[in-house]
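Give me the fold.
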Amino acid sequence: MAWGRMRGLASLAALVALAACAAMTPGPSVSPSNALLAGAQRGPAIGSLQISPEDAGGALVSFLESCPRLLQRQDSSGLTRPGDWLPACDAAASWHPGDASEFFGAYFETAIIGDGQAFATGYYEPEIAGSRTRQPGFDVPVYALPADLERGWTQDIPPDERTGQPPLGRWDESGSFVRYFERAQIEDGALAGRGLEIAWAADPVEFFFLQIQGSGRLLAPDGSVIRIGYAGQNGREYVSIGSVMRERGLFGEGPGQYEPSMQGIMRYLRENPQEGAELMRLNKSWVFFRELEGDGPLGALEVPVRRESSVAADPSFVPLGAPVFLTLDRKIANGLWIAQDTGGAIKGANRFDTFWGAGGDAREVAGAMSGRGEALLLLPKGTLERIGEQ
C-alpha cells in the first residue's frame, strides 16, 4: 500500500504499494496524467447512494483525521485547492457520527472521473510472529533504514541520461557509487553486524508478504505487539512473484497448480521451499522498517488507516483525504471510503486498494479481493462548477 507498503507505501509501499495478488490482475490503463485531464463529470446526488449510517460514521471519523493534511496538501489531481475543504472540515469537527450521512450530503457533490469504471483490490495489516531479540525460531532480521543508503548517479548511467531523480545506492569500498544491495545479498548477510536489526521475524515467507504490505504487527512470544511501518526501500526492482507464477503456468485448477491469490502463492512457496526461495529473490526490492506508535498503521497522509474506511488511490486522480463511493461486483467492498494511502501498483483513474485491518479475517478478505464496478469521487460542493465539467 503507504503507510508506504511498497506503497508510497506506501507508498509505499511500496510498494510500496501492493498485495502480491493485486499486481497479478491488470487494472484499467489511463493515458491522461491527472483527473482534471481525464475529465470530471457530475455524478448522481449523494442522497441517492443509500449510504448506511455505519458506513458514513466510519468515513466521517477518517475524513476528520485527514483534514489537517487536506488543508495543507497541494492536490496533484488538479481538482481541488486546500481552501475548498475548509467548510467541510470545520463542520466535521462538531458533527455527530450518528448523523454522518447528512454531513456528506450537505458538503459534497459526486464526480465521475474518466469513464468511472473502477478496479479494486485489498490490503491488510499483517500479524506475524516476531521478537525484539534474536532467539531460537526467530532468525529473520527486520532492518531499520541504513545510513549509507543515499541517492546518486551510478557509473553505468551515462551523463546524458542523468535526468530526473538519481537512483538509490551506496558508496562501495573502492569509492564508486553503486546500486544498493538487492534482496538476495541482504538475505545472505550484507547488512548483518551493523546494528540495524529492530526485531526478528520467525517465518521468511510471512515476512516477505509483510514487506509487500509495508506495515504490520510482530506478535512476540510474551504476548507483546511490535507495530512496524515503512521507513524506506533499497531502490531495487520490484517484481510481482504472482506475475512470474502466472507466466510459468502455475495458476489453475489442475495438478501442481495453485489458486491465483495471495493464499495460493503462499501455499506454493511452502510446498516448494527451494523453488519458492528462489522465486522470492526475483523480487530484488527490500523494505526497511521503523517502529510505530499509535492505534493504527499510518497511510501516505501520515494518519491512521482504518478497517473498511480507508482506501489507497493514485493521488494524481484522487485528492488524498477525499471520500470515494464504490459500487463493485464484490459487495463487501461497496460503500464510502476515504482515500488516505497510495500504492506502487495503485496507478490511474478509478484504481483502488481497500484496507481491511489486521487479523485472520482481514488477511482472507484482502487476499481474495478483486472487484470491478463504478467509482464516484466526492468533492466539496462547487468544485465542478469552478473547474468546469469536462
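Residues 310 and 338 are 5 Å apart (CA to CA).
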